[in-house]
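hey so i finally got around to running the thing on that chain from the lab meeting. sorry it took forever, my laptop kept dying and i had to restart like 3 times. anyway pasting the input first so we r on the same page abt which one it is
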Amino acid sequence: MSNTFQFQEWINSHSERTESALERLLDSAQTTPHRLHEAMRYAAQGGGKRIRPLLVYAAGELSNDGKAEAVSLDAAAVAIECIHAYSLVHDDLPCMDDDDLRRGRPTVHKAFDEATALLVGDALQTRAFEILAAANCDAQVRLKMISALAAASGSRGMAGGQAIDLESVGKKLDLPGLKQMHAMKTGALLSCAVELGGIAAQLNQTQLAHLEAYSKALGLAFQIVDDVLDATADSQTLGKTAGKDAAANKPTYVTLMGLDYAQKQAKELQEVAIASLDSFGAQAQALKDLALLVVNRGK
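ok and heres what got predicted. didnt touch it at all, straight out
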């Protein structure tokens, strides 16, 4: 990338690329069963920041020869967005966080029904791996991407973090425990997005290690900012119900350490993430700007 890199133009073009890939790789609402596929599209195409696909594309631009295969990046971007969408659908269910609003619209179980919402999550999860398995790229690249996404999504990643979150309602976690929960619940999938882009770009182990340091810091910063926004922003700004964590007596960075500490910690993690990319030079500008975007949300 040159010194004239325009981040907003990059965001716009890659957001459009994400939407186009989602449209292409998700089953049509005319496919049987119609209602399920309609609801899957409602969940996955209902807006949002698309941070995870953008991280896939940004990391993919670090390719040593600049030729990370577009099809593998599109597959990875859609796959991880399907996993993210499924997690939100299930998270909003009455048996979990019980929310009526997501991305400024009724949640899937409100727009359709609870049984359909449950099946939407199931189907989006399996569709993610189907998309990766069918990606037109080197077989080893496909296998590595499938393995990475499975690990980040399961009991030692996102689902496990959600389990800890549910078990912690009304309890007081210490700071290491809170960090572990966030690293699994939110950080694992964000880290995986960066890793998928690096895999598609066929980076070496040293380069992947630098990306891992970046993504771990970014993942924790992302969740801390979420905690701050839940405590300070309104529902219209968030696109979901504000103050849910406090109302549910959930441990957060704000309740555990205070608002000032949380904001300072997010800023420090942003600096760690950006510094981790120094070896990539200008090629990593999109990743650096995404770190700024994550921490400055709501400002």
